[in-house]
Amino acid sequence: MRLVHSKLRLRLYLDDTLKDEKLFDTAKIVIGRDPSCDFVIDNKLISGTHAKITREHGGYYIEDLGSTNGTLLNGRRISKEFLRLGSEITLGKHRIILTHEGESDFSGEAEETIVPLTDETINLSPAEAESLYRKAREISLSSLSGELALIKGKGSPDKIRLTELMTKVGSAGDAAFKLKGLFAPSVAFHIEKSEEGFILHVPPGSKKLMVNGNQPSKRSRLKDGDLVDVGSFSFRFRLFR
Q1: Which is nearest to 142 in space by CA: 195, 82, 105, 71?
Q2: What CATH number has the domain bearing residue 67?
Q3: Which structural domain range is residue 22 located in?
Q4: d(Cα 55, Cα 193) in Å, to the nearest integer?
Q5: DSSP class of residue 120?
Q6: What is the phi/psi pair of residue 137, to 5°?
Q7: Which of 28, 48, 176, 232 sits 20 to 30 Å CA-CA off 82?
Q8: Residue 33 falls inside a structural domain
């Protein structure tokens, strides 16, 4: 649902614990560790002025302000993006959920935040940042559920729940769905779990991969019941809602 001009409620979570909640009726909300920010998050993974929410053209936008560790919207790193009701913003280990005025479940008093201006932002290593972004994206996609079943050919396992952000299918040693046989392709295809749904990625040069009897594009969104064929192997994709 589109966020239109109304009082905007920001809920701050650490893991699954609601830490703070504030109601705003301004055209700009600056979020960061500095006490001068409109919405203060007392954590060294947060930059002094980390991000801002602005009201433009009757809607709201989130914009990263050149922060050290980045801003994620619904698990995806952004520079500036349009916001919708229920959007989830991730800053460091904290999550901010957006709702309208009147929607509140915060029963406690927020602790007073006092942050020394001399504190330096902790700069995450690329590996740490990637791990944090991956965790945030997995949380945002946790309600998306799918399954791939092998209905023709030999492989292990014969059925797999698609819980990872990327699942490799093939005879390669690191394949999550390992195919067996002399003519089994090293990489048959990948399935990505994304905000768009489950996306089939076709390897470069592949001419034997078919979806429902048709050759797919290099990146195709799978639908419930789709039949995926590659050589002598056949798979059935199931989407659970």
Answers
A1: 195
A2: 2.60.200.20
A3: 8-100
A4: 31
A5: P
A6: -70, -40
A7: 48
A8: yes
If asked whether residues 150 and 95 sit together in one domain, one would say no
In a domain, residue 118? The reply is no
Half-sphere exposure of 91 (CA within 13 A, CB side): 33
Tokens of 174: 């690191």
CA distance 82 to 60: 6
Phi-psi region of 86 (alpha: psi -120 to 50; beta: other; left: phi over 0): left
Is residue 190 a contact partner of residue 202, using CB atoms and an 8 Å limit?
no
Specify the pTM.
0.47
Look up tokens 């800053």; give the residue. Answer: 91
The answer as to whether 52 is a domain residue is yes
**β-pair partners for 199:** 192, 221
Among the candidates 47, 65, 100, a domain finishes at 100
Q: Looking up tokens 């419930």, which residue turns up?
A: 224
pLDDT in tens, the chain (241 residues): 444 446 788 989 987 788 999 999 888 999 999 999 999 999 989 999 999 999 887 778 899 999 988 999 888 888 998 887 778 899 988 999 888 654 444 333 433 333 333 345 556 566 666 665 566 655 555 667 889 999 999 999 999 998 887 899 999 888 989 999 888 989 999 998 876 788 899 888 777 899 999 989 888 889 999 999 999 999 999 988 6
Give backbone dihedrals phi and psi of 44, rounded to 5 degrees, phi first: -75, -5
Which of 20, 26, 21, 31 is CA-nearest to residue 7? 26
Torsion angle in degrees (nearest 10) through CA of 95, 99, 199, 135: 10
What single-letter amino acid sits at 171? S
The answer to the question of residue 24 being in a domain is yes
